Fold:
Amino acid sequence: MGRRTGIAAVMAVAALVVGACGGDATSTTASTVAATTSTTTSTTTTVPLPAGCELVPYAIDLRISGDGALEPFQVTDAIAVPTAGGRAYTVYLADFPIDREDRSYSYVTDPPDGGIVVQTGLTVFNAEDPESVPVLEGGEVGQVDWEAGELATFLNVTAPDAPGFSVDMTGSARLVHLGDDVVCIEASITSESGFALEGTYTAELVRGF
Structure:
């Protein structure tokens, strides 16, 4: 079975990838984050999370190809990588343990045989002056119009026999929560290639990639 990924296409289009940092967009309820890495260590932090922002494991609705109904995808590990000084996030949602010790993107976008990883998040494409792009604070919405300098979202899936990445998408993503350790985003995105994502996802913030 083949495996295809659109990571190169995503990075080629984006002169600046998105980021976020700041507060909440909704009222919160207390939850405990137990972030267990693929190494032998784990971190537990108490943070307030809005209703609907579940910690792994959880399910989101996903379609990898075709035009059929979306099906539950079980996310067992998720990381959010901030870039551009907190102006951008690339989020990886996977059904396998993500290696926090591998400070590169290669492992995340080349999962084990049979593994699936969703790449999404918020970004600003082709910003002439990256320093002028504001740091996100919560509540912002990114569309898939990909207008230069405007907040945007994207979707790509790496999976056995997945179609290639397509820039032709519809939908949006909203930054629901941003804490010291986790980020939560609500998204509804459909790609002409067949990819589709619907739901709210939470990911552990991982810095230093």
